[in-house]
């Protein structure tokens, strides 16, 4: 099995796509006015309109209701990313911070309130962990 994508359901596809394009530097593929994909070598972030929810099943998803998942983006330099995101991000949860598991992380909220973690492996152990995952 291979993990393929994470999908965010939103009331504002255009706004969320614009945010993620600005925050990541990745141009979204707009497959439909109600659906977009941002592709990376390790996976995809899909953004879908709440108008798609009935296709999934009654009350299968609700926009702006998530408070339990963080999306993690591996970046080359968290501190540079922090500088780049000034003017793009409205809510910074923290400034770049060294985490006990070896990453330097920056947590922000997207326009729908979803938690986003931009991180860089900061210790040799963390760097080795992500180097091994890139080879798999």
Strand content: 25-35%
Question: What is the name of the CATH topology of the largest domain?
Answer: 2,3-Dihydroxybiphenyl 1,2-Dioxygenase, domain 1
Number of domain units: 2
Euclidean distance between termini CA atoms: 13 Å
Look at the helices and sheets and give the structural class.
Answer: alpha+beta
Low-confidence stretches: none
Question: Could you state the CATH homologous superfamily of the largest domain?
Answer: 2,3-Dihydroxybiphenyl 1,2-Dioxygenase, domain 1
Number of helices: 4
Helix content: 25-40%
Question: Largest sheet at a glance?
Answer: 5 strands, mixed
Number of strands: 9
- The helix-strand sequence is EHEEEHEHEEEEH
Shape label: globular
C-alpha Rg (nearest Å)? 16 Å
CATH architecture of the largest domain: Roll
Mean pLDDT across all amino acids: 94
CATH class of the largest domain: Alpha Beta
InterPro entries: Glyas_Bleomycin-R_OHBP_Dase, Glyas_Fos-R_dOase_dom, VOC_core
Protein name: Glyoxalase
Organism: Zhihengliuella salsuginis
Strands, helices and their partners?
Elements: E1 5-10, H1 13-24, E2 29-32, E3 35-40, E4 43-49, H2 53-56, E5 70-74, H3 78-85, E6 91-92, E7 97-98, E8 103-109, E9 115-121, H4 124-135
